[in-house]
């Protein structure tokens, strides 16, 4: 171990350069990350018949013609906002994501649920169908302070690890010459 530390000390300027390059790369990547906010609502279609499948409900919720365009218009959000509906058993999860702010994500989720509810009734022609909101998630930041710190630290640690690898190679080369 002592010999390794001697070899690493010998390439200390290189270790500092690699670590600095990793740190700069991490800072650049971290600054390129756009903050996004997401909100998830879980819904359930009540009074559905056996021939109605949750996959169909998801397809309706994701439909641009039936829901997306109208929900975006009603919510009054910009083009940086979008949503995706997924299925979890009989529950349809609607996750809205916006770059603008958390309120827009909340508005879009609520608007999607409202338009989706009307679309389900219209498509199936059944006034008894009702879309119930099971849970309303709070707005979550996609790029947190912790993730930004990790974006910076991980490349810096990789740079340091590369210098350690070079020190190991240099130590191996030095010990190989002594044996010869």
Number of helices: 6
- The Rg value, from CA coordinates, equals 27 Å
Q: Strand content of the residues, in percent?
A: 15-25%
Major β-sheet annotation:
5 strands, antiparallel
- Residue ranges: pLDDT <50 for 5 or more in a row? none
- The helical percent reads 55-70%
CA-CA gap between termini: 21 Å
Global outline: elongated
Give the beta-strand count. 5
The overall pLDDT average reads 90
Q: What is the helix/strand order?
A: HHEHHEEHEEH
Task: Decide which structural class fits the backbone.
Answer: alpha+beta
Q: What's the gist of this structure?
A:
The protein is α+β, with helices and mostly antiparallel strands and 180 residues long. It has helices at 2-10, 12-32, 54-62, 64-75, 102-124, 145-179; strands at residues 37-46, 82-88, 91-98, 130-136, 140-141.
Please name the defining characteristics of this protein.
5 strands, alpha+beta, 180 residues, 5-stranded antiparallel sheet, elongated, 61% helix
Q: What does this protein structure show overall?
A:
This protein has 180 residues and is α+β, with helices and mostly antiparallel strands. It contains 6 helices and 5 strands, in the order H-H-E-H-H-E-E-H-E-E-H. The protein has helices spanning 2-10, 12-32, 54-62, 64-75, 102-124, 145-179, and strands at 37-46, 82-88, 91-98, 130-136, 140-141. Strands 1, 2, 3, 4 and 5 form a 5-stranded antiparallel β-sheet that branches. A hairpin with a 2-residue loop joins strand 2 and strand 3 (91-98). Helix 1 packs across helix 6, helix 2 (12-32) packs antiparallel against helix 6 (145-179) and helix 4 (64-75) packs antiparallel against helix 5 (102-124).
């Amino acid at each position: 171990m002592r010999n390794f530390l001697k070899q690493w000390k010998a390439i200390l300027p290189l270790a500092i350069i690699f670590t600095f390059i990793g740190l700069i790369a991490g800072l650049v990547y971290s600054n390129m990350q756009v903050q996004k906010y997401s909100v998830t609502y879980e819904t359930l279609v009540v009074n559905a018949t056996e021939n109605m499948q949750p996959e169909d409900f998801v397809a309706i919720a994701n439909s641009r013609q039936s829901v997306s365009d109208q929900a975006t218009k009603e919510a009054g959000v910009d083009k940086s906002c979008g949503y995706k509906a997924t299925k979890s058993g009989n529950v349809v999860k609607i996750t809205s994501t916006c770059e603008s702010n958390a309120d827009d994500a909340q508005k879009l989720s609520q608007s999607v649920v409202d338009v989706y509810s009307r679309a389900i009734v219209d498509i199936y022609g059944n006034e008894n169908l009702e879309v119930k909101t099971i849970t309303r998630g709070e707005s979550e930041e996609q790029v947190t302070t912790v993730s930004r710190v990790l974006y910076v630290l991980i490349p810096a640690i990789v740079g340091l690890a590369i210098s350690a690898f070079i020190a190991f190679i240099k130590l191996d080369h030095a010990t190989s010459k002594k044996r010869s």
